[in-house]
Amino acid sequence: MKRFLVFSFVVLTAFTQLFGGNPERAGQAGATQLLINTWGRSSGFNGINIGSTYGIESIMNNPAGLATTKRTELVFGHTRYLVGTDININSFGFSQSMKKAGVIGIYVSAFDLGDFIRTTEDNPEGELGNFSPTFMNLGISFAKQFTDHIYVGATIKVVHESIFDAGANGVAFDAGVQYRTNLGEDSVHTDRLKLGISLRNIGSTMQYGGDGLTFRTNRADDFTSLSARPTESFEMPSVLSMGLSYDFFLGAQHRLTPLFAFIANSFSHDQLGVGMEYGFSKYLMLRYSFLYEKDILDDDKRMTAWTGHGMGLTVEIPFKSGEGRTSTFGLDYSYRSTNPFSGTHVIGARIDL
Q1: HEC profile for 37-105?
Q2: What is the number of structural domains in the chain?
Q3: pLDDT tens digits for 317-328?
Q4: pLDDT band for position 252 (50/70/90)?
C-alpha cells in the first residue's frame, strides 16, 4: 500500500507541469476520438472507474484492469454519439488469459462519420460527389498481476484518420497500475478497496499529408511543378487519471460501490468525478456518475457538450460452457447527457468464457 501511494505521488509530481488543466489549449489537440468511451459498462461511469475497471473494457481508462481476466472475454459495443449528428461507432475487444504469464488483449474502434460533399478549389460547388472519412483506433494491451494486490498494464495504440485523399497516422502509449486490497477483516469479500492510476495517449505528433495536400503550379517556362504542403503537426490529448472505489456489502446479495476520480487533461479543464454502483448478486448492476469540470453547470461558459451525467445498466446471464464451467453472457447500456444534441447512447454485449 505504501509503495503504491509513493508511486502515485511521484507520477503526479513528475507530470504537474504537463497535466495542470489547460483550457486555453482547448481545440489544439487532434485524435480526440481517443477520449471517446465506446464500451457499454465503463461509459456509464463517465470513465471514472480507474481503480475498479476490469476485463477488456479496462483498455479504455486503465489497462491494469485487464489482468483480472480469468479465461477468455469478447466484447462488442455500438455507440450513437451525440445523437443528432449521425455519428456511429462500433468497437470490438478480445482478451485471453495466459495464466501466470499475464493477459493479452486487442481492440478496434471504427467510426462512421457519415457522408460529406466533396469540394475542391476548382469546384467549390460540390459537384464531385460525396466522400466518407475513415477514423479507426487499434490497440494491443498486456497486463499482469505481480502480487496479491498489484496489477500493471500497458497498451500500444495505432490511430488512423483519412479524409478522401489526405490522411494522418499516429502511435500512442497507455500505462496503468491498480492496487486492490481488503482493508478490513472479511473472509468472504476480498479486494473491496481499489485504487488506480493511469497515463494515456502519450505518443507521437500527427500530421495530415497525401495527394489532397499536393498542389500543382504552372510556371512561366511551361514547366509544371508539384509541391506537397502537409498540415501543421498536432499532439494527442494526453490524460492522467487517478481513482478509487470501495465495496459495501449489505447482506449476501446486495452491494453498493461509491467511486471517486480525478482526471487531469492536457488540453482542457481538469475534472472531478463521483459515482455509485448498485449490484444485485452478480447478475444485475445499476450505476450513476457525475463528471464535473469548471463551468459545466453554466450553459454560457461551458467548454464541452457534456453536461456531466452518466448512467448505465448491466445484466449478466450465466450459462454452462465446455468442461462444465460457468460462463456469462452480459448486456450493457449507458447514457451520457449532452447539451446541445440528445446525449450519447452505448449498447454492449459481452461473453466471458
Answers
A1: CCCCCHHHHCCCCCCCCCCHHHHCCCHHHHHHCCCEEEEEEEEEECCCCCEEEEEEEEEEECHHHCEEE
A2: 1
A3: 998 876 667 889
A4: confident
